[in-house]
Amino acid sequence: MVTIKSKKEIELMREACKVVALTYEELEKSIRPGMSTWELDQIAEKTMRNLGAIPAEKGYNIGVKGIPPFPSSICVSINDEIIHGIPSKNRIIKEGDIVSVDTVALKNGFNGDAARTFIVGKASKDAQNLVEVTKQAFFEGIKYAKVGNRIGDVCHAIGEYVHSQGYSVIKEFQGHGIGRKMHEDPGIPNYGKAGRGIRLEPGMTLAIEPMVIQGKPNILELDDGWTIVTEDGSLSAHYENTILITEKEPEILTILEK
Ligand code: MG
Asked: What is the distance of C-alpha 179 from the center of its chain?
């Protein structure tokens, strides 16, 4: 079921999303070569808790037998890792890495969700371009996130843009509605047919998240039960924001107005 948030609920969504935006400000300031992904996780968790939020990914259970709950506050996925990488003291960030972080803050019963891909130091031109295209894919998609349009219009715009740049989107994972639950309806794939799916209405809050691969769209899951990597070893990037559908333009809740 797609939930329509009341005025009050939208204010609470704003609060949760602000925590996520502030967490990314901290991570951007802190990330550097030589640091472990565990250290990055500690910074994120501390920031969220100091702002009165709970890192919602920590302990998140997908309910599949044999897969342990997610142990950390952020997912950190480096280079050919696409999503759901587990922070570790042994995983050291290197100059030239592209580091995708995905995190969800839960505050006052509502979730805010966003992802960023950080370029650490100097990365290759190819890596930089992938990161830029992934971010732009989000903005191409939300041009269609307007009342009266359908969710398929957003999905279609993302997929078309990514493919026009010579990259692939993954099909096994997708964006989603968000609110009291981290994952609500509708599912928001990064490809699809325009004119299909639910009609967008004011008060819907949606996490739109292009996950883009430089090479072929095939993916693998590592033995940890979480980390998703590209099958061909090519690079991948991720960019996500929680948005609010309004009567006019969509509002991006996980980017702070300056
Ligand atoms: Mg996310």
From this structure: 15
